[in-house]
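Review form for a predicted model. The reviewer records the input and the model, then writes brief findings.
Reviewer: anonymous (R2)
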Amino acid sequence: MNKSIIALLLSVISISTYTPCHAAKGEKSVGLRAGFTTTNNAPVAGLYFKYGFTDYFRLAPDLDYYFRHDNTDAFALNINAEFPFALGKGSNFNIYPLAGFNFTSWNTHNTIPADVKSDSDDSSTRSSRMGFNVGAGVEYYATPTLKFSIEGKYGCIKHFDGGIITASIGYVF
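Model under review:
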């Protein structure tokens, strides 16, 4: 009986000292992203950094590489504004809408038959475009220094618009 009471008291104390994790002013995070883009139906991989200016506003630049598919690949630089809020009092989950700008450099590889190729043939064409992003994400703080996220956004880019879905892991400091 005494062991049960002690265990119950320790449980109450541990719950009462538990501090939920959520986005906060001055919070910084850096991490890895991976996912899929519908623009060329290919995998995406990248890096991100986030800085919280307030509890409910942060800037989130990221750099992504869209792997080659259908003779097209790209590098994308996004600068998004995110507006995180907790999904409940004391929750480790945040949801955030986002909006921002992107610069994407698309590389289209021309298929030239081997018997026609020469050393002077340019085998690719690069197109650089500016655009806009709109989307949303959800993040889970596993610990005060580790978070996981899932994000979906739509990039409005002339001739190259499409959706991007990514999952990420990040270090919070």
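Findings: The chain has one helix and nine strands.
Further findings: The longest helix spans residues 2-17.
Recommendation: see findings above.
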